[in-house]
Amino acid sequence: MSDGFDVDRIYEVFARQKREDRLEHVGAITAPNASLARVYAWQTYDEATWFEMVVAPRDSFEAVNREEAPFTLEPREEGAAT
Amino acid sequence: MPEMTAEDRELQEKVHDGFLVESEADMTENYKQALITQLLVQGDTELISAPAYFMAARDAPTTNTMVSATAIIQDELGHANIAYRLLEDLGVDRHWILYEREPHEFKHPYGFDQPLENWAELVVANGFYDRAGITLLGDVHRNTSYGPLKRALVKVDLEENFHLRHGEVWMKRLSTSGPEAREKLQDAVDWMFPMGVEWFGMPDDKKRHTTQLDFKLKGMSNDELRQTWLQAVVPLCDELGLDVPARVDEESGEVELTYDFPVQYDPEEKKWLFDEPISWDEVWDRWRERGPMNEEYVNSVRRSRFEIEEMLAA
Ligand SMILES: [Fe+2]
Ligand SMILES: [Fe+2]
Fold this sequence. Notes:
The structure holds 2 protein chains of 2 kinds.
Chain A (H helix, E strand, L loop, with lengths): L8 E8 L7 E8 L2 H11 L7 E6 L25
Antiparallel strand pairs in A: 1-2, 1-3
Chain B lengths: L5 H11 L12 H29 L5 H26 L5 H7 L18 H25 L3 H29 L3 H21 L11 H4 L7 H18 L6 E3 L6 E3 L5 E4 L4 E7 L2 H10 L4 H20 L1
Antiparallel strand pairs in B: 1-2, 3-4
Bound molecules: fe (ii) ion (2 copies).
């Protein structure tokens, strides 16, 4: 994974509070590389003392049972600002 | 209000029956635009609370209190980030949100265009404005038909309650700390209480029907939300012996304002002109004109980005 600063990617954030817990989806952040994604995730989702937190780029998720899984969806159009 | 199509009405029925919208594919254009507006208000309010709180945090009485104030500011930036992240999924460009809008185009309430100048004003902001935030976002959390927002608000609610507690504990503390602290606290309450009343917008008899309610992007009307806030804030002030222009009806528990809402505000003097009732058109004019700190707050959260860009370009 490159550590460049060129393109922002969306990273999904997963965490668990205790060793025996499942990883849970806690949110997402946007970052230009994986190192910053880790920092942003840790700083943003600091509501609990996590046993473990991991991040993965949204575009690395493979839909299994449906074509339009939430993690794989792209916005319909660019710059739909009001 | 936008014209509703047959698809809009179908979606409105579905969400009122409990359907959760999970992605753009589930939305109509009108739903999407209403959600974008709501998330911009939410994100901008969180974002601008940060420099507003920072201005007052510099007056923190001790290192420890500075630390708790800074923790709150960091939470708020995180909350803004979460709202803006959700907007990106709707195709709204993050760079546009943060860097391409004029300060007056940000959608935070007029109350966050005002200078917070001392510790008393910071803790009243936590007690009043974070309470307003909890009232509004708690309602969204319980009722929103947009699944990703509902889930994101779990964390936000948790942290807002910490901010509120910070405010209420300190208001109590200042109210029992001798005449000078009491006076500062009352001064803060005097201009910040009516600011909180205005936070919830137009009364229902002026604007009853909203797209947000139709699409279940929230559950309560402006007046219901305002009343919820009043029923938390006014008893607290009564308990602390602080004067507010409102009273609790003993029988119904409802809170009634004892001034002619809405009234004009003088931002230079930080004074409400209670003998100058105005129309809602005039309130809108004042909001649109923005308050004294509007530009400075907006620029302060994006100044360093431009400085870094210049450095990188040099
Ligand atoms: Fe917040
Ligand atoms: Fe807050």
